[in-house]
Specification:
Elements (H helix, E strand, L loop, with lengths): L7 E6 L2 H10 L4 E5 L3 E5 L5 E6 L7 E3 L2 E3 L9 E5 L5 H10 L4 E6 L5 E6 L5 E5 L8
Parallel strand pairs: 1-4, 7-10
Antiparallel strand pairs: 2-3, 3-4, 5-6, 8-9, 9-10
Length: 136
């Protein structure tokens, strides 16, 4: 028995509105839900990217449905988004036009290509084409 896939990934941000604008505007994700504490984004193919205002989750939260245990994070973390190889030129253009610098571009032994850049909170983001991993 094993999990089917990762369902959610969480990032902790200092300015929730700025982060949500980046992920909806630059990255093209769709906001599904939002409060002053978090924004939930449709990250494609049944995955969710959660943006939490840093520090507001450290004490947990009681809801009508039960208890959400505390969690929080600090420092830059890494998230990779799967893209089609044919979309690489369009992503390079979109990032440039949005004022987002590409930090690195890497071709992997299996033939996949990764573009690395930062979000407004300094998180390391990657756009990866097929051929990065055995499973992708």
């Amino acid at each position: 028995m094993r999990p089917r896939r990762v369902l959610e990934t969480a990032l902790y941000v200092d300015d929730l509105e700025r982060a949500a604008a980046f992920y909806t505007g630059v990255m093209g994700l769709r906001a599904m839900f939002g409060t002053d504490r978090l924004v939930a984004l449709d990250a494609g193919e049944g995955t969710v990217l959660l943006l939490f205002r840093r520090g507001l989750t450290a004490e947990g939260l009681r809801t009508d449905g039960g208890w959400l245990p505390p969690h929080d994070g600090s420092g830059p973390v890494h998230v990779a988004f799967a893209i089609d190889r044919e979309a690489l030129p369009a992503w390079r253009t979109r990032l440039s036009e949005s004022g987002v610098a590409i930090e690195s571009e890497l071709t992997w032994p299996r033939g996949g290509v990764s573009l690395y850049f930062r979000d407004p909170d300094g998180h390391s983001l990657e756009l990866a084409t097929p051929g990065v991993w055995q499973v992708y």
